[in-house]
């Protein structure tokens, strides 16, 4: 401590100490810590640290962790692809945004009694049933609800199997082949108890594309 | 295996993991705040800061240190955000507007991490790393050192000194938070959490559309965000975002991290006061509340306990498929019972009574197990109230841990208990009375009141999670909630440190036949009763008008 600082009044001295402490911590915890983690992460786990990117035909088509839209040029769901869940991750300024926009991650935030939510659930049920040619009662919950991130990469087994016939028909494939493909893409609960069984839509669709 | 069975086994695995960490981490906590040995690097830090590490402080000096560090933190973080456009790694984002920058600075310096901004479109990488994440360490450390000072109040006698704030702060950051964060940040990366400094870059999707893949130093922040019970997400979707929480394993790790320090602190408490059973008693109360909360929220989220769940056939609105109901509710209960406020599902879309429990969890004062440090000092205040009530029943001077609970101690405990409800209820009342602030409500009916009640409960208790339908990025909400966060954090800290000083000044009174043992089931159930009667009932009218009205409709 210099003689000058000891002559300063107590409160000033204290706040200078606080400022110095904050600066020291900023260097240690705000710069060194994230850089060390970044360095080790990039060296030891480059694929994960980089975002689990996946490639098809030599080009990056997305991340296996992020859901993506499978829509046609007009923004309608494309029948030849397995469809993900409804997404609230939409740019509010872009009416044609099909969702799954990572710059706008997030849920709908609609309350459980909100008539607007009930209405959209009913509308989605009718649309999914018509699109897949199945009875409305067979449409599972995840197919008619928006996820928390708006980027949910997965669908339930029920929603995957429900789409098999429609996808097979659109691609001129034997439904049994497509169903078998779904089966090998099922991810069960980790160690039998963690999370829920699911199917990653991008992985499944990439396998589907490789069938041809 | 049924979903419910898997869910309970999952919760059981979490409890086992916490039990394994309990002893070593609790003992380590007690050690780092009692040893006289300084690390060489710590000497260097004390020299840089300009403090004498071996000078113990009076409670008022200790408090001034806490307040100075926090005030400087708020100002520094405010300036950092305001200057963002001139800094490297800003990703081209402009300066954060003044009201939002104030709100965010108050939020991160108070361990709240309420976010009126959306990470991916507001904050550049440098502000996230060197601004926000530093506060994730600092604010967590402040909570821990305050409870350590309180514990010293119990074990010291006839002294004015409760420790050295700068030493405690440095040790909490360097010896506790940093090493655990490094280890778990790497574990999270291995599990799929991203960690890079890329800007968002476009790709052509499989179906020929366009998608932007975001980047960021996420894992390093994710680890301390949970460990320090902060909860501020790198991305808007927080721990529901697949880049922050990619699978059920990382999910369980994140829940473990946000509970582990608060749980293990009860061990450190028992060890420091020389009677480990005192720590177990407090932990038992925490555990009962936590289990009840997990069970309650799980019940209302499973099956069809809301109009939306009935229409959809299950409560999946605002939930991720990889987590499903059990891993979502386990996270939700834990994050609202600590001061974390990270979310892996949308709390606004929870069933009315499930959402009501999350609000109740925070209203209890986040004591089961609570935020890092703040949970333990919260429940110790309630323990003091409990021995006081018990003392009244039998007509004796109440004692806790060999210290008399006199009028001064009771006044401070009462102030502590009154501060947060006053902030929550006055704040909610004012917001409801203002036309413009009503307009920020997204959902109609009683749920709209719940959204505002949640906002003030979350900020006053320094939780930070939200019923995010409420549009809180307005000058009024940024300002009001910012002030509520500061008062909700630092007024209780003033009372707790004053209490620490008051207790330290007393001499020890030996336990007598009339002393109520504070480690037996009788005390544990009385403490539970006090938690429910004193705290929960304060809020009953507000709960009745919001979540209960919607749920029983």
Summary?
The complex is a heterodimer of chains A (212) and B (553). Chain A has 212 residues and is mostly helical. Chain A has helices at residues 3-7, 10-44, 46-49, 115-132, 141-144, 157-162, 164-171, 175-184, 201-210, and strands at 53-56, 59-63, 154-155, 186-187, 198-200.
Q: What are the SSEs and their pairings?
A:
The complex is a heterodimer of chains A (212) and B (553).
Chain A: H1 3-7, H2 10-44, H3 46-49, E1 53-56, E2 59-63, H4 115-132, H5 141-144, E3 154-155, H6 157-162, H7 164-171, H8 175-184, E4 186-187, E5 198-200, H9 201-210
Antiparallel strand pairs in A: 1-2, 3-5, 4-5
Chain B: H1 3-32, H2 40-49, E1 57-58, H3 59-82, H4 98-109, H5 119-122, H6 125-155, E2 161-163, H7 165-191, E3 201-204, E4 210-213, H8 218-227, H9 248-272, H10 276-301, H11 307-312, H12 324-337, H13 352-363, H14 374-394, E5 399-400, E6 403-404, H15 407-433, H16 435-438, H17 446-460, H18 475-505, H19 521-535, H20 540-551
Antiparallel strand pairs in B: 1-2, 3-4, 5-6
Structural summary, described in words:
The complex is a heterodimer of chains A (212) and B (553). Chain A has helices spanning 3-7, 10-44, 46-49, 115-132, 141-144, 157-162, 164-171, 175-184, 201-210, and strands at 53-56, 59-63, 154-155, 186-187, 198-200. With 212 residues, chain A is mostly helical. Chain A folds into two domains: 3-47; 51-210, no CATH class. A three-stranded antiparallel beta sheet of chain A has the order 3-5-4. In chain A, strand 1 and strand 2 form a beta hairpin. In chain A, helix 7 crosses helix 8 (175-184). The model of chain A has no long low-confidence stretch (mean pLDDT 95). With 553 residues, chain B is mainly α. Chain B has one domain (3-551). Chain B is built from 20 helices and six strands. Chain B has helices at residues 3-32, 40-49, 59-82, 98-109, 119-122, 125-155, 165-191, 218-227, 248-272, 276-301, 307-312, 324-337, 352-363, 374-394, 407-433, 435-438, 446-460, 475-505, 521-535, 540-551, and strands at residues 57-58, 161-163, 201-204, 210-213, 399-400, 403-404. In chain B, the strands form three sheets. Chain B has a two-stranded antiparallel sheet with strand order 1-2. In chain B, strands 3-4 form a two-stranded antiparallel ribbon. Chain B has a two-stranded antiparallel ribbon with strand order 5-6. In chain B, helix 6 (125-155) packs parallel to helix 8 and helix 17 crosses helix 20 (540-551). In chain B, 65% of the residues are buried. The model of chain B has no long low-confidence stretch (mean pLDDT 96).
């Amino acid at each position: 401590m210099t003689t000058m600082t000891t002559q300063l009044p107590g409160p000033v001295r204290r706040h200078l100490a606080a400022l110095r402490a904050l600066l020291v911590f900023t260097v240690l915890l705000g710069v060194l810590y994230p850089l060390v983690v970044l360095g080790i992460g990039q060296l030891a786990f480059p694929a994960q640290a980089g975002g689990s990117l996946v490639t098809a035909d030599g080009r990056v088509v997305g991340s296996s962790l992020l859901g993506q839209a499978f829509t046609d040029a007009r923004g309608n769901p494309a029948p030849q692809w397995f469809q993900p869940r409804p997404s609230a991750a939409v740019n509010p300024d872009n009416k044609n945004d099909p969702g799954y926009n990572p710059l706008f991650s997030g849920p709908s935030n609609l309350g459980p009694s909100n008539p607007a939510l009930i209405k959209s659930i009913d509308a989605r049920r009718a649309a999914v049933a018509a699109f897949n040619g199945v009875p409305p009662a067979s449409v599972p919950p995840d197919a008619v609800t928006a996820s928390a991130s708006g980027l949910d990469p997965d669908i339930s087994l029920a929603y995957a199997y429900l789409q098999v016939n429609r996808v097979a028909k659109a691609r001129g494939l034997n439904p049994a082949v497509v169903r078998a493909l779904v089966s090998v893409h099922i991810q069960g609960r980790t160690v039998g108890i963690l999370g829920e069984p699911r199917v990653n839509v991008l992985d499944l669709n990439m396998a589907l594309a490789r069938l041809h | 295996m049924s979903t419910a069975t898997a869910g309970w086994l999952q919760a059981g695995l979490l409890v086992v993991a916490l039990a394994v960490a309990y002893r070593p981490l609790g003992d380590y906590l007690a050690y780092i705040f009692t040893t006289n040995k300084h690390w060489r690097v710590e000497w260097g830090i004390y020299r840089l800061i300009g403090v004498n590490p071996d000078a113990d402080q009076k409670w008022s000096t200790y408090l001034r240190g806490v307040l100075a560090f926090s005030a400087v933190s708020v100002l520094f973080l405010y300036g950092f955000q305001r200057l963002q456009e001139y800094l490297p790694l800003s990703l081209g984002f402009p300066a954060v507007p003044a009201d939002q920058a104030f709100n965010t600075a108050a939020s991160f310096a108070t361990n709240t991490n309420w976010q009126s901004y959306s990470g991916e479109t507001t904050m550049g990488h440098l502000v996230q790393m060197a601004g926000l994440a530093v506060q994730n360490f600092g604010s967590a450390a402040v909570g821990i050192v305050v409870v350590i000072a309180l514990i010293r109040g119990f074990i010291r006698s006839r002294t004015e000194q409760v420790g050295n704030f700068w030493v405690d702060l440095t040790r909490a950051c360097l010896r506790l938070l940093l090493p655990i964060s490094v280890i778990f940040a790497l574990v999270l990366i291995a599990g799929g959490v991203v960690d890079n400094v890329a800007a968002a870059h476009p790709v052509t999707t499989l179906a020929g559309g366009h998608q932007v893949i975001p980047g960021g130093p996420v894992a390093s922040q994710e680890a301390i965000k949970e460990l320090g019970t902060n909860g501020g997400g790198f991305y808007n979707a927080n721990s529901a975002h697949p880049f922050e929480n990619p699978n059920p394993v990382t999910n369980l790790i994140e829940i473990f991290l946000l509970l582990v320090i608060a749980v293990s602190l009860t061990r450190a408490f028992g060890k420091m006061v020389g009677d480990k059973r005192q720590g177990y008693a407090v932990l038992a109360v925490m555990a009962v509340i936590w289990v009840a909360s997990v069970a309650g929220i799980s019940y209302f989220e499973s099956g069809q306990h809301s109009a939306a769940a009935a229409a959809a056939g299950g409560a999946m609105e605002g939930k991720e498929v990889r987590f499903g109901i059990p891993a979502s509710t386990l996270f939700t209960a834990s994050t609202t019972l600590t001061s974390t406020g990270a979310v892996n599902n949308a709390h606004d879309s929870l069933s009315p009574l499930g959402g009501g429990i999350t609000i109740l969890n925070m209203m209890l004062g986040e004591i089961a197990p609570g935020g890092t440090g703040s949970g333990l000092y919260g429940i110790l205040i309630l323990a003091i109230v409990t021995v006081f009530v018990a003392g009244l029943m039998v007509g004796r001077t109440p004692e806790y841990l060999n210290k008399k609970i006199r009028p001064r101690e009771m006044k401070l405990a009462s102030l502590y208990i009154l501060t947060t409800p006053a902030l929550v209820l006055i704040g909610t009342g004012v917001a409801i009375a203002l036309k413009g602030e009503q307009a920020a409500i997204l959902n109609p009916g009683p749920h709209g009141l719940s959204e505002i009640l949640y906002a003030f409960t979350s900020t006053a208790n320094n939780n930070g999670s939200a019923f995010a339908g409420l549009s809180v990025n307005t000058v009024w909400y940024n300002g009001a909630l910012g002030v509520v966060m500061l008062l909700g954090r630092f007024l209780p800290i003033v009372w707790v440190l004053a209490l620490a000083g008051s207790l330290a000044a007393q001499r020890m009174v030996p336990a007598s036949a009339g002393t109520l043992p504070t480690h037996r089931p009788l005390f544990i159930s009385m403490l539970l009763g006090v938690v429910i009667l004193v705290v929960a009932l304060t809020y009953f009218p507000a709960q009745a008008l919001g979540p209960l009205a919607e749920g029983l409709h």
